From TrEMBL:
Active site: 134 (proton donor/acceptor), 162 (schiff-base intermediate with substrate)
Gene that produces this protein: dapA
Catalytic activity entry: L-aspartate 4-semialdehyde + pyruvate = (2S,4S)-4-hydroxy-2,3,4,5-tetrahydrodipicolinate + H2O + H(+)
Assembly with partners or alone: Homotetramer; dimer of dimers.
Taxonomic classification: Bacteria, Bacillati, Bacillota, Bacilli, Bacillales
Role this protein plays: Catalyzes the condensation of (S)-aspartate-beta-semialdehyde [(S)-ASA] and pyruvate to 4-hydroxy-tetrahydrodipicolinate (HTPA).
EC identifiers of the protein: 4.3.3.7
Taxonomic source organism: Tumebacillus algifaecis
Keywords noted in UniProt: Amino-acid biosynthesis, Cytoplasm, Diaminopimelate biosynthesis, Lyase, Lysine biosynthesis, Schiff base
Main location class: cytoplasm
Name of the protein in question: 4-hydroxy-tetrahydrodipicolinate synthase
């Protein structure tokens, strides 16, 4: 299954009471589909998965599948640091009709490489749909090595990895030695073009909430061989890519959506709203691109 090149790690819209707001969710889905997103990733870190309940996650999966109606793919974030619970949630997500799963490296309990392998194998064995690995050592506290990723890539329904290690030796090793059809996605917006240059396929993006059209243009230019044009677009977008992470994600991307007429509400504790001066700064950077 091809999830396309621009996957969006979708924020979860909340109402004024910080309950999931399905009206706002519908509007966000239309906004993302209209600006180049090829797959919606539901209940990832950007979707504030740590503060979503189990029932909220299942309801979100079902709703997004229904609303997307086959126009784009839907991927559910279902992995945690509890393997048994991850398998159960993954099976429920599959039953809800999602097209694939995003599986983050277990966090906090710092598993060994063998523990990571067995965790992901257990989830993949428990479902029939495609699985995308997700390595983000800055949040999980551990790095999944290229050797472990390549070992997991041999499992039939593990079809891709989202690499947020920033380690180009590791990324290049995975690209060079992975089986035919296995795809590598950047997990960092600012590394989209550099990772494409070493053989990655696309990006699981945060910035696509607000610069999706421009990111589609950049990726398209690179894929079509217009490398200088892609580099110019990368340089233009870089201040926004960097700005959105001046505070803990997704506080600033939610603020930018709200400012630009796509209401998504606030963030749940323990996250808090970004400082006004940061919101103003990122707004200025975004306006330079949109102006």
């Amino acid at each position: 299954m091809d999830f396309g090149r621009l996957l969006t790690a979708m924020v979860t819209p909340f109402d004024d009471n910080l309950d999931v707001d399905y009206g706002r969710l519908d509007a966000l889905i239309e906004h993302l589909i209209g600006s180049g997103t090829t797959t919606l990733v539901v209940s990832g870190t950007t979707g504030e998965s740590p503060t979503l309940t189990h029932d909220e996650k299942i309801a979100l999966f079902k709703h997004v599948v229904e609303k997307a109606a086959g126009r784009v793919k839907v991927v559910a974030g279902t992995s945690s640091n509890d393997t048994r619970a991850s398998v159960e949630l993954s099976q429920e997500a599959e039953a809800a009709g999602v097209d694939g799963l995003l599986l983050v490296v277990p966090y906090y309990n710092k598993p060994s490489q063998e523990g990571m392998y067995q965790h992901f194998k257990a989830i993949a064995d428990g479902v029939k749909i495609p699985c995308i690995l997700y390595n983000i050592p800055g949040r999980t506290g551990v790095n999944m090595t290229s050797e472990t990723t390549l070992r997991l890539a041999e499992i039939d329904n593990i079809v891709a990895t989202k690499e947020s290690s920033g380690d180009f030796n590791q990324i290049s090793e995975i690209v060079a030695a992975s089986p035919a059809g296995f795809k590598v996605y950047s997990g960092d917006d600012y590394l989209t073009l550099p990772m494409l240059a070493v053989g990655a396929y696309g990006i699981v993006s945060v910035a696509s909430h607000v610069v999706g059209d421009e990111m589609s243009q950049m990726i398209g230019a690179f894929v079509e061989g217009r490398v200088e044009e892609a580099a110019v677009l990368h340089a233009k977008l870089l201040p926004v890519f960097q700005g959105l992470f001046l505070a803990t994600n997704p506080t600033l991307v939610k603020a930018m959506l709200n400012q630009n007429g796509v209401e998504v509400g606030g963030v749940r504790l323990p996250l808090v709203e970004a400082a006004p001066e940061l919101i103003e700064e990122v707004g200025k950077r975004l306006n330079k691109i949109k102006g």
